[in-house]
Amino acid sequence: MNIRRFLFILSHNILPAVAAGVILVGCSSVVNSHKQKEDMMADYLEGDNEGALDEIEYKLREPAWYNSSVVGTGDELMWRLEAGSMNFHLGNFEECIEQLRIAEDMINDYDERAEVSARDLGAETGAALTNLNALPYRGYCRDRIALAVYKALAYLGKGDEEAFHAQIRRLRNEQKKVQDDYSKFFEQEKARLEEDKAKNPDEAKKTESLGSIEKLSGSPDNAAFKANMAKVKKVANKGYGNFLNPAAIFLSGLGSIRDGEYDNARIDFRHLSEAMPNNPLFRQYYVTVLKKAEREIPENLADVQPFDFPLDRDCVFVVFANGRTAALEQSAIYFPVMTAWPECAFYDAPFQNLEAEAGGKKYSSMILADMDGILAQEYEERLPGMIARIVLNTLIKDGAYYAGLAVIAAQKDMDPAVQAAALATVAIGGAAYRAAMNTADTRSWEILPKEFQLTQFPMPTDRKVDLKLNLNGGMVVSKELRLPDDCRSAIIFVDAPSVQNVAFHVLPIKSK
Fold first, then answer.
1. Peptide bond preceding 280: is omega within 30 degrees of 0, i.e. cis?
2. 167 in Cβ contact with 148 (< 8 Å)
3. How far is 58 from 445, CA to CA, in rounded Å?
4. pLDDT, tens digit, for every residue of 99-110?
5. Gyration radius (Cα) of the chain, Å
6. Residue 326 lies in a domain
7. The domain containing residue 242 runs over which residues?
8. For residues 13 and 8, what is the distance between their CA atoms, to the nearest angstrom?
9. Which carries the bigger pLDDT value, residue 32 or residue 180?
Protein backbone atom coordinates (compact mmCIF):
# COMPACT_ATOMS: atom_id res chain seq x y z
CA MET A 1 0.00 0.00 0.00
CA ASN A 2 1.42 3.44 -0.90
CA ILE A 3 1.14 6.63 1.13
CA ARG A 4 -1.43 8.24 -1.17
CA ARG A 5 -3.74 5.21 -0.93
CA PHE A 6 -3.37 5.09 2.87
CA LEU A 7 -4.19 8.80 3.28
CA PHE A 8 -7.23 8.40 0.97
CA ILE A 9 -8.62 5.60 3.16
CA LEU A 10 -7.86 7.57 6.30
CA SER A 11 -9.57 10.76 5.12
CA HIS A 12 -12.58 9.11 3.48
CA ASN A 13 -13.34 6.35 5.99
CA ILE A 14 -11.64 6.55 9.38
CA LEU A 15 -11.78 10.28 10.14
CA PRO A 16 -15.43 10.74 9.06
CA ALA A 17 -16.42 7.78 11.25
CA VAL A 18 -14.65 9.29 14.24
CA ALA A 19 -16.22 12.71 13.57
CA ALA A 20 -19.67 11.15 13.24
CA GLY A 21 -19.16 9.34 16.52
CA VAL A 22 -18.31 12.59 18.29
CA ILE A 23 -21.41 14.31 16.89
CA LEU A 24 -23.77 11.47 17.74
CA VAL A 25 -22.76 10.96 21.36
CA GLY A 26 -23.84 14.45 22.42
CA CYS A 27 -22.43 17.89 23.13
CA SER A 28 -21.00 17.15 26.58
CA SER A 29 -18.70 14.41 25.29
CA VAL A 30 -16.04 16.97 24.32
CA VAL A 31 -16.82 20.01 26.50
CA ASN A 32 -18.18 18.95 29.89
CA SER A 33 -21.66 20.23 30.73
CA HIS A 34 -20.61 22.25 33.80
CA LYS A 35 -18.17 24.16 31.59
CA GLN A 36 -20.91 24.70 29.01
CA LYS A 37 -23.13 26.26 31.67
CA GLU A 38 -20.58 28.80 32.94
CA ASP A 39 -22.11 31.73 31.03
CA MET A 40 -25.64 30.67 31.90
CA MET A 41 -24.88 30.40 35.61
CA ALA A 42 -22.88 33.66 35.62
CA ASP A 43 -25.87 35.49 34.10
CA TYR A 44 -28.24 33.82 36.55
CA LEU A 45 -26.20 34.71 39.63
CA GLU A 46 -25.67 38.29 38.43
CA GLY A 47 -29.42 38.75 37.95
CA ASP A 48 -29.42 38.67 34.14
CA ASN A 49 -32.29 36.21 34.00
CA GLU A 50 -33.15 36.84 30.37
CA GLY A 51 -29.53 36.18 29.42
CA ALA A 52 -29.59 32.88 31.30
CA LEU A 53 -32.86 31.89 29.63
CA ASP A 54 -31.42 32.76 26.20
CA GLU A 55 -28.53 30.35 26.85
CA ILE A 56 -30.99 27.56 27.67
CA GLU A 57 -33.29 28.25 24.73
CA TYR A 58 -30.30 28.31 22.39
CA LYS A 59 -29.44 24.77 23.50
CA LEU A 60 -33.06 23.67 23.01
CA ARG A 61 -33.54 25.28 19.60
CA GLU A 62 -34.85 23.30 16.64
CA PRO A 63 -32.16 20.77 15.73
CA ALA A 64 -30.44 20.80 12.36
CA TRP A 65 -27.41 19.02 10.95
CA TYR A 66 -25.36 22.21 11.16
CA ASN A 67 -26.16 23.32 14.73
CA SER A 68 -25.40 22.14 18.25
CA SER A 69 -28.96 21.77 19.53
CA VAL A 70 -29.23 19.20 22.32
CA VAL A 71 -32.73 18.14 21.28
CA GLY A 72 -32.65 14.42 20.52
CA THR A 73 -29.32 13.88 22.31
CA GLY A 74 -28.56 12.35 25.69
CA ASP A 75 -28.20 15.86 27.16
CA GLU A 76 -31.73 17.03 26.36
CA LEU A 77 -33.32 15.97 29.66
CA MET A 78 -30.79 17.99 31.65
CA TRP A 79 -31.49 21.16 29.66
CA ARG A 80 -35.26 20.66 29.93
CA LEU A 81 -34.87 20.62 33.72
CA GLU A 82 -32.83 23.84 33.61
CA ALA A 83 -35.55 25.38 31.43
CA GLY A 84 -38.21 24.36 33.94
CA SER A 85 -36.62 25.93 37.01
CA MET A 86 -35.43 29.02 35.09
CA ASN A 87 -38.94 29.70 33.85
CA PHE A 88 -40.27 29.17 37.38
CA HIS A 89 -37.78 31.77 38.66
CA LEU A 90 -39.10 34.22 36.05
CA GLY A 91 -42.72 33.48 36.91
CA ASN A 92 -43.38 31.86 33.52
CA PHE A 93 -45.36 29.08 35.17
CA GLU A 94 -47.08 27.77 32.02
CA GLU A 95 -43.72 27.33 30.25
CA CYS A 96 -42.21 25.82 33.42
CA ILE A 97 -44.93 23.14 33.45
CA GLU A 98 -44.45 22.42 29.74
CA GLN A 99 -40.67 21.99 30.04
CA LEU A 100 -41.03 19.76 33.11
CA ARG A 101 -43.73 17.72 31.38
CA ILE A 102 -41.33 17.01 28.50
CA ALA A 103 -38.61 16.11 31.02
CA GLU A 104 -41.02 13.82 32.87
CA ASP A 105 -41.96 12.04 29.64
CA MET A 106 -38.28 11.50 28.84
CA ILE A 107 -37.62 10.06 32.30
CA ASN A 108 -40.58 7.70 31.95
CA ASP A 109 -39.32 6.63 28.53
CA TYR A 110 -35.90 5.77 29.99
CA ASP A 111 -37.42 3.87 32.90
CA GLU A 112 -39.89 1.88 30.83
CA ARG A 113 -37.19 0.23 28.73
CA ALA A 114 -37.40 -3.16 30.38
CA GLU A 115 -34.88 -4.67 27.98
CA VAL A 116 -31.74 -3.14 26.54
CA SER A 117 -32.81 -1.54 23.28
CA ALA A 118 -30.72 -0.85 20.19
CA ARG A 119 -30.54 2.76 21.32
CA ASP A 120 -29.09 1.68 24.69
CA LEU A 121 -26.58 -0.64 23.03
CA GLY A 122 -25.46 2.21 20.79
CA ALA A 123 -24.99 4.44 23.79
CA GLU A 124 -22.99 1.76 25.63
CA THR A 125 -20.72 1.36 22.59
CA GLY A 126 -20.36 5.13 22.35
CA ALA A 127 -19.38 5.30 26.00
CA ALA A 128 -16.67 2.70 25.51
CA LEU A 129 -15.25 4.62 22.55
CA THR A 130 -15.68 8.09 24.06
CA ASN A 131 -16.82 8.67 27.66
CA LEU A 132 -19.86 8.35 29.92
CA ASN A 133 -21.47 11.44 28.37
CA ALA A 134 -22.50 9.12 25.52
CA LEU A 135 -25.07 7.55 27.86
CA PRO A 136 -28.38 9.44 28.17
CA TYR A 137 -28.67 11.61 31.26
CA ARG A 138 -31.42 10.01 33.35
CA GLY A 139 -31.50 12.47 36.24
CA TYR A 140 -30.46 12.05 39.84
CA CYS A 141 -33.05 11.11 42.47
CA ARG A 142 -32.85 14.69 43.68
CA ASP A 143 -33.78 15.87 40.18
CA ARG A 144 -36.82 13.67 39.90
CA ILE A 145 -38.33 14.75 43.21
CA ALA A 146 -37.46 18.42 42.64
CA LEU A 147 -39.25 18.16 39.28
CA ALA A 148 -42.45 17.06 41.03
CA VAL A 149 -42.14 19.86 43.63
CA TYR A 150 -41.61 22.62 41.06
CA LYS A 151 -44.39 21.30 38.88
CA ALA A 152 -46.82 21.35 41.80
CA LEU A 153 -45.93 24.92 42.75
CA ALA A 154 -46.07 26.05 39.11
CA TYR A 155 -49.66 24.78 38.87
CA LEU A 156 -50.50 26.95 41.84
CA GLY A 157 -48.64 29.86 40.25
CA LYS A 158 -50.80 29.66 37.11
CA GLY A 159 -53.94 29.51 39.24
CA ASP A 160 -54.80 25.83 38.74
CA GLU A 161 -55.51 24.80 42.34
CA GLU A 162 -57.07 21.50 41.33
CA ALA A 163 -53.89 20.42 39.51
CA PHE A 164 -51.78 21.69 42.43
CA HIS A 165 -53.69 19.56 44.93
CA ALA A 166 -53.63 16.53 42.61
CA GLN A 167 -49.86 16.87 42.22
CA ILE A 168 -49.08 17.19 45.92
CA ARG A 169 -51.34 14.21 46.69
CA ARG A 170 -49.05 12.18 44.43
CA LEU A 171 -45.80 13.36 46.00
CA ARG A 172 -45.54 10.57 48.58
CA ASN A 173 -46.00 7.96 45.86
CA GLU A 174 -43.58 9.84 43.60
CA GLN A 175 -40.97 9.61 46.35
CA LYS A 176 -41.48 5.84 46.61
CA LYS A 177 -41.48 5.43 42.82
CA VAL A 178 -38.12 7.19 42.57
CA GLN A 179 -36.67 4.90 45.22
CA ASP A 180 -37.97 1.78 43.43
CA ASP A 181 -36.90 2.96 39.97
CA TYR A 182 -33.43 3.82 41.15
CA SER A 183 -32.98 0.42 42.73
CA LYS A 184 -33.57 -1.05 39.28
CA PHE A 185 -31.30 1.56 37.71
CA PHE A 186 -28.43 0.70 40.04
CA GLU A 187 -28.88 -3.00 39.24
CA GLN A 188 -28.79 -2.25 35.50
CA GLU A 189 -25.61 -0.21 35.91
CA LYS A 190 -23.98 -3.01 37.86
CA ALA A 191 -25.04 -5.68 35.32
CA ARG A 192 -23.72 -3.68 32.37
CA LEU A 193 -20.44 -3.03 34.14
CA GLU A 194 -20.04 -6.76 34.74
CA GLU A 195 -20.80 -7.46 31.05
CA ASP A 196 -18.09 -5.01 29.97
CA LYS A 197 -15.64 -6.58 32.40
CA ALA A 198 -16.38 -10.02 30.95
CA LYS A 199 -15.70 -8.70 27.41
CA ASN A 200 -12.44 -7.05 28.51
CA PRO A 201 -10.91 -9.44 31.09
CA ASP A 202 -7.42 -7.89 31.07
CA GLU A 203 -8.72 -4.39 31.67
CA ALA A 204 -11.20 -5.73 34.23
CA LYS A 205 -8.38 -7.29 36.25
CA LYS A 206 -6.50 -3.99 36.25
CA THR A 207 -9.69 -2.13 37.23
CA GLU A 208 -10.14 -4.33 40.31
CA SER A 209 -6.60 -3.61 41.46
CA LEU A 210 -6.57 0.11 40.59
CA GLY A 211 -10.16 1.31 40.73
CA SER A 212 -11.08 1.56 44.40
CA ILE A 213 -11.68 4.60 46.60
CA GLU A 214 -8.95 3.49 49.02
CA LYS A 215 -6.39 2.90 46.25
CA LEU A 216 -7.06 6.23 44.57
CA SER A 217 -7.15 8.17 47.83
CA GLY A 218 -3.85 6.63 48.88
CA SER A 219 -1.96 8.00 45.88
CA PRO A 220 -0.05 11.27 46.52
CA ASP A 221 -1.15 12.37 43.03
CA ASN A 222 -4.79 12.27 44.18
CA ALA A 223 -4.63 14.63 47.17
CA ALA A 224 -7.40 16.80 45.69
CA PHE A 225 -9.59 13.72 45.12
CA LYS A 226 -9.06 12.63 48.74
CA ALA A 227 -9.94 16.09 50.07
CA ASN A 228 -13.10 16.22 47.98
CA MET A 229 -14.18 12.77 49.17
CA ALA A 230 -13.87 13.99 52.78
CA LYS A 231 -16.01 17.02 51.95
CA VAL A 232 -18.62 14.88 50.16
CA LYS A 233 -18.84 12.56 53.15
CA LYS A 234 -19.40 15.48 55.51
CA VAL A 235 -22.15 17.01 53.35
CA ALA A 236 -23.73 13.59 52.66
CA ASN A 237 -24.33 13.24 56.41
CA LYS A 238 -26.85 16.06 56.04
CA GLY A 239 -28.90 13.87 53.70
CA TYR A 240 -31.92 11.93 54.87
CA GLY A 241 -31.45 8.35 53.71
CA ASN A 242 -33.23 6.42 50.98
CA PHE A 243 -33.24 9.53 48.73
CA LEU A 244 -35.85 11.24 50.94
CA ASN A 245 -36.56 14.86 49.99
CA PRO A 246 -38.27 16.62 52.93
CA ALA A 247 -39.65 19.41 50.69
CA ALA A 248 -41.75 16.86 48.80
CA ILE A 249 -42.92 15.07 51.94
CA PHE A 250 -43.81 18.41 53.54
CA LEU A 251 -46.00 19.38 50.58
CA SER A 252 -47.62 15.94 50.67
CA GLY A 253 -48.35 16.40 54.38
CA LEU A 254 -49.64 19.92 53.80
CA GLY A 255 -52.05 18.59 51.18
CA SER A 256 -53.38 16.04 53.67
CA ILE A 257 -53.79 18.75 56.33
CA ARG A 258 -55.76 20.94 53.95
CA ASP A 259 -57.94 17.94 53.03
CA GLY A 260 -58.55 17.23 56.72
CA GLU A 261 -56.86 13.82 56.39
CA TYR A 262 -54.77 14.03 59.55
CA ASP A 263 -53.90 10.33 59.67
CA ASN A 264 -52.22 10.67 56.28
CA ALA A 265 -50.53 13.88 57.40
CA ARG A 266 -49.34 12.03 60.52
CA ILE A 267 -47.48 9.50 58.36
CA ASP A 268 -45.68 12.23 56.39
CA PHE A 269 -44.66 14.29 59.41
CA ARG A 270 -43.59 11.18 61.29
CA HIS A 271 -41.19 10.45 58.43
CA LEU A 272 -39.87 14.01 58.59
CA SER A 273 -39.54 13.92 62.37
CA GLU A 274 -37.63 10.64 62.14
CA ALA A 275 -35.39 11.91 59.33
CA MET A 276 -34.59 15.09 61.29
CA PRO A 277 -35.29 14.31 64.95
CA ASN A 278 -33.70 17.55 66.15
CA ASN A 279 -35.56 19.82 63.75
CA PRO A 280 -37.97 21.85 65.93
CA LEU A 281 -40.15 22.75 62.97
CA PHE A 282 -41.01 19.15 62.09
CA ARG A 283 -41.42 18.20 65.73
CA GLN A 284 -44.04 20.95 65.99
CA TYR A 285 -45.80 19.85 62.80
CA TYR A 286 -45.83 16.25 63.97
CA VAL A 287 -47.32 17.09 67.37
CA THR A 288 -49.92 19.34 65.72
CA VAL A 289 -51.20 16.61 63.37
CA LEU A 290 -51.06 13.97 66.15
CA LYS A 291 -53.37 16.11 68.25
CA LYS A 292 -55.68 16.71 65.29
CA ALA A 293 -55.76 12.96 64.59
CA GLU A 294 -56.40 12.35 68.31
CA ARG A 295 -53.30 10.19 68.56
CA GLU A 296 -51.01 9.71 71.53
CA ILE A 297 -48.04 12.06 71.77
CA PRO A 298 -44.72 10.18 72.13
CA GLU A 299 -42.88 10.79 75.37
CA ASN A 300 -39.93 12.46 73.65
CA LEU A 301 -42.33 15.06 72.17
CA ALA A 302 -44.34 15.71 75.32
CA ASP A 303 -42.89 19.21 75.80
CA VAL A 304 -43.46 20.30 72.15
CA GLN A 305 -46.30 22.79 71.71
CA PRO A 306 -48.54 22.53 68.63
CA PHE A 307 -49.13 25.53 66.38
CA ASP A 308 -51.56 27.98 67.96
CA PHE A 309 -53.20 28.81 64.62
CA PRO A 310 -54.87 26.57 62.01
CA LEU A 311 -52.70 25.18 59.21
CA ASP A 312 -55.60 24.01 57.04
CA ARG A 313 -57.03 27.47 56.28
CA ASP A 314 -56.23 31.20 56.36
CA CYS A 315 -52.50 30.48 56.55
CA VAL A 316 -49.35 31.73 54.78
CA PHE A 317 -46.41 29.43 54.10
CA VAL A 318 -43.10 30.99 53.06
CA VAL A 319 -40.73 28.67 51.17
CA PHE A 320 -37.23 30.15 50.93
CA ALA A 321 -34.96 28.71 48.20
CA ASN A 322 -31.51 29.81 49.37
CA GLY A 323 -28.37 29.84 47.19
CA ARG A 324 -27.24 27.60 44.34
CA THR A 325 -27.10 23.85 44.55
CA ALA A 326 -24.01 21.68 44.50
CA ALA A 327 -22.77 20.82 41.02
CA LEU A 328 -20.25 18.51 39.39
CA GLU A 329 -16.97 20.00 38.17
CA GLN A 330 -14.29 18.33 36.09
CA SER A 331 -11.08 17.42 37.89
CA ALA A 332 -8.59 14.57 37.45
CA ILE A 333 -7.65 11.28 39.07
CA TYR A 334 -4.49 9.24 38.48
CA PHE A 335 -4.24 5.44 38.56
CA PRO A 336 -1.52 6.21 37.29
CA VAL A 337 -3.12 7.17 33.94
CA MET A 338 -4.74 10.60 34.24
CA THR A 339 -8.45 10.63 33.53
CA ALA A 340 -11.19 13.22 33.92
CA TRP A 341 -13.33 12.92 37.03
CA PRO A 342 -16.69 14.50 38.10
CA GLU A 343 -15.99 16.19 41.44
CA CYS A 344 -18.72 17.51 43.75
CA ALA A 345 -18.49 21.29 44.11
CA PHE A 346 -20.32 23.08 46.92
CA TYR A 347 -21.16 26.79 47.11
CA ASP A 348 -21.72 29.00 50.13
CA ALA A 349 -25.28 30.11 50.89
CA PRO A 350 -25.73 33.85 50.23
CA PHE A 351 -28.23 34.21 53.09
CA GLN A 352 -28.48 32.93 56.63
CA ASN A 353 -32.26 32.84 56.94
CA LEU A 354 -35.47 34.71 56.24
CA GLU A 355 -37.58 36.71 58.66
CA ALA A 356 -41.22 37.52 58.04
CA GLU A 357 -43.27 40.13 59.87
CA ALA A 358 -47.05 39.85 59.60
CA GLY A 359 -49.92 40.82 61.86
CA GLY A 360 -47.56 42.46 64.32
CA LYS A 361 -45.50 39.29 64.89
CA LYS A 362 -42.14 38.05 63.58
CA TYR A 363 -41.38 34.59 62.25
CA SER A 364 -38.00 33.07 61.29
CA SER A 365 -37.41 30.39 58.67
CA MET A 366 -35.92 27.00 59.52
CA ILE A 367 -34.33 24.34 57.35
CA LEU A 368 -36.79 22.33 55.26
CA ALA A 369 -34.46 20.39 52.95
CA ASP A 370 -30.69 20.36 52.43
CA MET A 371 -30.44 19.85 48.67
CA ASP A 372 -26.64 19.57 48.80
CA GLY A 373 -26.92 16.75 51.31
CA ILE A 374 -29.40 14.89 49.12
CA LEU A 375 -27.11 15.08 46.07
CA ALA A 376 -23.94 14.27 48.04
CA GLN A 377 -25.58 11.21 49.58
CA GLU A 378 -26.54 9.82 46.17
CA TYR A 379 -23.12 10.72 44.72
CA GLU A 380 -21.45 8.82 47.57
CA GLU A 381 -23.69 5.79 47.02
CA ARG A 382 -22.89 5.70 43.30
CA LEU A 383 -19.17 6.35 43.84
CA PRO A 384 -17.80 2.76 43.68
CA GLY A 385 -19.63 2.07 40.43
CA MET A 386 -18.58 5.43 38.94
CA ILE A 387 -14.91 4.77 39.71
CA ALA A 388 -15.00 1.25 38.30
CA ARG A 389 -16.77 2.38 35.13
CA ILE A 390 -14.45 5.37 34.49
CA VAL A 391 -11.26 3.38 35.15
CA LEU A 392 -12.43 0.48 32.97
CA ASN A 393 -13.42 2.75 30.06
CA THR A 394 -10.10 4.58 30.25
CA LEU A 395 -8.18 1.31 30.16
CA ILE A 396 -10.26 0.02 27.23
CA LYS A 397 -9.56 3.17 25.18
CA ASP A 398 -5.87 3.05 26.07
CA GLY A 399 -5.72 -0.65 25.18
CA ALA A 400 -7.37 -0.04 21.80
CA TYR A 401 -4.95 2.81 21.06
CA TYR A 402 -1.81 0.78 21.78
CA ALA A 403 -3.24 -2.28 20.05
CA GLY A 404 -3.78 -0.20 16.91
CA LEU A 405 -0.16 0.91 16.96
CA ALA A 406 0.97 -2.69 17.50
CA VAL A 407 -1.07 -3.96 14.54
CA ILE A 408 0.52 -1.43 12.18
CA ALA A 409 4.01 -2.07 13.57
CA ALA A 410 3.55 -5.83 13.01
CA GLN A 411 2.87 -5.45 9.26
CA LYS A 412 6.09 -6.96 7.81
CA ASP A 413 5.10 -6.52 4.16
CA MET A 414 4.11 -2.86 4.49
CA ASP A 415 6.24 -0.25 2.76
CA PRO A 416 8.44 1.33 5.47
CA ALA A 417 7.47 4.86 4.46
CA VAL A 418 3.75 3.97 4.55
CA GLN A 419 4.20 2.19 7.86
CA ALA A 420 5.97 5.21 9.38
CA ALA A 421 3.22 7.52 8.10
CA ALA A 422 0.52 5.21 9.48
CA LEU A 423 2.17 4.98 12.89
CA ALA A 424 2.62 8.77 13.05
CA THR A 425 -0.97 9.42 11.96
CA VAL A 426 -2.48 6.95 14.43
CA ALA A 427 -0.20 8.16 17.22
CA ILE A 428 -1.02 11.86 16.69
CA GLY A 429 -4.69 11.32 15.85
CA GLY A 430 -5.18 8.79 18.63
CA ALA A 431 -3.55 11.03 21.22
CA ALA A 432 -5.68 13.98 20.09
CA TYR A 433 -8.84 11.86 20.19
CA ARG A 434 -8.08 10.50 23.65
CA ALA A 435 -7.41 14.02 24.92
CA ALA A 436 -10.66 15.31 23.40
CA MET A 437 -12.65 12.40 24.83
CA ASN A 438 -11.07 12.70 28.29
CA THR A 439 -14.18 14.49 29.52
CA ALA A 440 -15.94 13.91 32.84
CA ASP A 441 -19.69 13.40 33.03
CA THR A 442 -20.56 16.54 35.00
CA ARG A 443 -24.21 16.62 33.95
CA SER A 444 -26.60 17.71 36.68
CA TRP A 445 -29.49 20.12 37.25
CA GLU A 446 -27.78 23.33 38.39
CA ILE A 447 -30.61 25.90 38.62
CA LEU A 448 -31.76 24.53 41.95
CA PRO A 449 -31.28 25.93 45.47
CA LYS A 450 -28.66 24.88 47.97
CA GLU A 451 -31.43 24.47 50.54
CA PHE A 452 -35.10 25.08 51.18
CA GLN A 453 -36.18 26.87 54.37
CA LEU A 454 -39.72 27.34 55.68
CA THR A 455 -41.84 29.45 57.98
CA GLN A 456 -45.59 29.87 58.39
CA PHE A 457 -48.07 32.21 60.08
CA PRO A 458 -51.77 33.12 60.07
CA MET A 459 -53.09 35.23 57.20
CA PRO A 460 -52.69 38.84 58.42
CA THR A 461 -55.88 40.90 58.42
CA ASP A 462 -54.18 43.75 56.53
CA ARG A 463 -52.66 41.18 54.11
CA LYS A 464 -49.23 42.79 54.41
CA VAL A 465 -46.07 40.73 54.79
CA ASP A 466 -42.59 42.20 55.28
CA LEU A 467 -39.78 39.85 54.33
CA LYS A 468 -36.11 40.24 55.26
CA LEU A 469 -33.34 38.00 53.95
CA ASN A 470 -30.44 38.10 56.37
CA LEU A 471 -26.87 37.96 55.10
CA ASN A 472 -24.07 36.58 57.23
CA GLY A 473 -22.50 40.04 57.38
CA GLY A 474 -25.56 41.64 58.95
CA MET A 475 -26.97 43.22 55.79
CA VAL A 476 -30.49 42.38 54.58
CA VAL A 477 -32.50 42.23 51.39
CA SER A 478 -36.07 43.28 52.16
CA LYS A 479 -39.39 43.18 50.37
CA GLU A 480 -42.91 44.26 51.33
CA LEU A 481 -45.68 42.18 49.82
CA ARG A 482 -49.44 42.59 49.82
CA LEU A 483 -51.40 39.39 49.37
CA PRO A 484 -54.40 39.42 46.97
CA ASP A 485 -57.79 40.13 48.56
CA ASP A 486 -59.37 37.06 46.98
CA CYS A 487 -56.96 34.48 48.44
CA ARG A 488 -57.70 32.69 51.69
CA SER A 489 -54.22 31.17 52.05
CA ALA A 490 -50.97 31.50 50.12
CA ILE A 491 -47.53 30.09 49.51
CA ILE A 492 -44.86 32.75 49.12
CA PHE A 493 -41.88 31.35 47.23
CA VAL A 494 -38.68 33.35 47.66
CA ASP A 495 -36.07 32.26 45.10
CA ALA A 496 -32.64 33.66 46.03
CA PRO A 497 -29.70 32.09 44.17
CA SER A 498 -27.60 35.16 45.00
CA VAL A 499 -27.77 38.60 46.60
CA GLN A 500 -28.08 40.09 43.10
CA ASN A 501 -30.97 37.86 42.05
CA VAL A 502 -33.95 37.47 44.38
CA ALA A 503 -37.43 36.69 43.05
CA PHE A 504 -40.63 36.81 45.11
CA HIS A 505 -43.63 34.78 43.95
CA VAL A 506 -47.01 34.94 45.66
CA LEU A 507 -48.90 31.72 44.90
CA PRO A 508 -52.47 32.38 46.09
CA ILE A 509 -54.84 29.67 47.35
CA LYS A 510 -58.44 30.80 47.07
CA SER A 511 -60.02 27.78 48.73
CA LYS A 512 -59.68 27.92 52.52
1. no
2. yes
3. 17
4. 999 999 999 888
5. 26
6. yes
7. 3-260+312-509
8. 8
9. 32
